[in-house]
Amino acid sequence: MRNTLLCCDWGTSSLRLSWVNTQELQIIDEVSGQEGIASTYNAWKESTDKNISQKEFFLQKLQQQINVLATKLGVDLNNIPVVLSGMASSSIGLEELAYAEVPFALDGSKATVRSFEKQPEFSHETVLISGVRNQRDVMRGEETQLIGLVHLMNLPDSKQKEIVFVFPGTHSKHIQVQNNAIINFQTYMTGEFFNLIAQHSILKNSIKNPKQEKLTEADWEGFSRGVQESAKATILHTLFSVRTNQLFNHLTKAQNFFYLSGLLIGTELRSLQQKTVPQIVLSSGSNLYPFYQRAIEELQLTDQTLVVSPEIIDKAAMVGQVRIFEQQLTPI
Fold first, then answer.
1. Are the folds of 4-155+317-328 and 190-310 the same?
2. What is residue 170's three-state secondary structure?
3. What's the angle, vertex CA 2, arms to CA 4 and CA 21, rounded to 5?
4. Rounded distance, CA 203 to CA 258, Å?
5. How far apart are CA 37 and CA 10, in angstroms?
6. % helix / strand / coil in the chain, to the nearest 5?
7. Does the pLDDT of residue 69 top 90, yes or no?
8. pLDDT tens digit sequence for 78-111
9. What is the pTM of this model?
10. Name one Pfam family in it (predicted).
11. 37 φ, ψ to 5°?
12. Does domain 190-310 have CATH number 3.30.420.310?
């Protein structure tokens, strides 16, 4: 099992565990599920065993996932090092770690990590990676993805000009890079705000999720209208147009669902129009990729935007974890 590593991207609502060939930077196999940090923390709080510590409980859950992967592969994964990133280093995770600060070098050398020795119940050396902060913002996980992305791609030279990497998600991140380091970043609660509006506001009665894999031209028309509407007023005003669209029969409820998405994504990305940004790199997974790409086209940001394929983004966190592991410890 030499030259392999167990890489775990443990987010708020999901977990992804990969067995990785570190020389070829290839995933041998993986398991994933909805056993995220939040649900695991809640399970620990509700546990009847009051003698088990938070760290011990999280290691037990991680060991269960390693066992699932080992059974799937038919191999013994004991003694293979584990590297963790994402929300595992938060106050509701395995152990809380202080954030690294900007400027943050993209070779992984400035990452804040904590190493744990093997234990009788957990036979893996473990490296826990923390996140990054600036004066008013924090992130956990995206910095590791970015380290991997920069390693994987022949990206524009950041020594001469600033590059903004856009990572869509529940809490989207716009990360400014210059001189091969993160110099600043901003968080946009686009995904979470969409879910709140769509599920818990008066506007939920004006939209309907069509739950179809492929959008129709009418769906895309609704999305584009939302992007364009985002320029007309502040979001607190334009949001009410979701209701009037339905009341005045301007859009169907299904179109309105995508209109709301366009309204919020358009609001997020318009911040890039307000800055002098020579280069934008859209770094999106497959679920949100077509929406952000369409919004960039609608906002006429295409000429200055490099779009990274979802396949590369899917691999970026793992590569970033390997890079940080190699920087912090002896080479694998």
1. yes
2. coil
3. 25
4. 13
5. 7
6. 40, 20, 35
7. yes
8. 999 999 999 999 999 999 999 999 999 999 999 9
9. 0.92
10. DGOK
11. -60, -45
12. yes
The span from the CA of 17 to the CA of 27, in Å, is: 10
299 alpha carbon, distance to own chain's centre: 23
At 256, list the tokens. Answer: 């309105």
pLDDT of 331 reads 43
Rounded to whole angstroms, the Cα distance separating 79 from 82 reads 9
Query: What pLDDT band is residue 284 in, cutting at 50, 70 and 90?
Result: very high
pLDDT tens digits, 194-231 = 999 999 999 999 999 998 888 999 999 999 999 999 99
The rounded distance, in Å, linking the Cα atoms of 154 and 247 is 50
| Bridge partner list, 16 | 9, 32
pLDDT of residue 332: 39
What is the fold, at CATH topology level, of the domain defined by 4-155+317-328?
Nucleotidyltransferase; domain 5 (3.30.420)
| Residues 6+ away with beta carbon under 8 Å from 171 | 187, 188, 189, 190, 191, 192
Going from N- to C-terminal start, the domains of the chain cover 4-155+317-328, 190-310
Measured distance CA(283)–CA(293) in Å, rounded: 10
**Amino acid identity at 73:** L
* DSSP letters for 255-312: HHHHHHHHHHHHHHHHHHHTS--SEEEEE--TTTHHHHHHHHHHTT-GGGEEEEPHHH
Asked if residue 156 has pLDDT above 70, the reply is no
Tokens of 229: 């509407």
Q: How many residues would you count in the chain?
A: 332
Per-residue confidence (pLDDT) for residue 213, from 0 to 100:
80
